[in-house]
């Protein structure tokens, strides 16, 4: 009985690991949480490796929340 992990949950897990903060809400701003270009680059690399998705640094400036990033990923 494995639980189904949503994309949002997977993205949240990566953000929490990189930022060292838990829990992070869907609408929490990455910059308000202490994120900066280096931590965002780490998030991007982990998302690429684990989830096979490509997110640009600029995407975080336009959509600095988990909900915003997941929405971008769903727009393919």
Automatic annotation (TrEMBL):
Gene3D superfamilies: ACP-like
Protein name in UniProt: Acyl carrier protein
Top-rank taxon: Bacteria
Residue intervals of the Carrier domain: 2-76
SMART domains recorded: PKS_PP (SM00823)
Names of required cofactors: pantetheine 4'-phosphate
PROSITE patterns given in the database record: CARRIER, PHOSPHOPANTETHEINE
Keywords attached to this entry: Phosphopantetheine, Phosphoprotein
Transmembrane parts of this sequence: none
UniProt GO MF annotations: phosphopantetheine binding
Annotated InterPro entries: ACP-like_sf (IPR036736), PKS_PP-bd (IPR020806), PP-bd_ACP (IPR009081), Ppantetheine_attach_site (IPR006162)
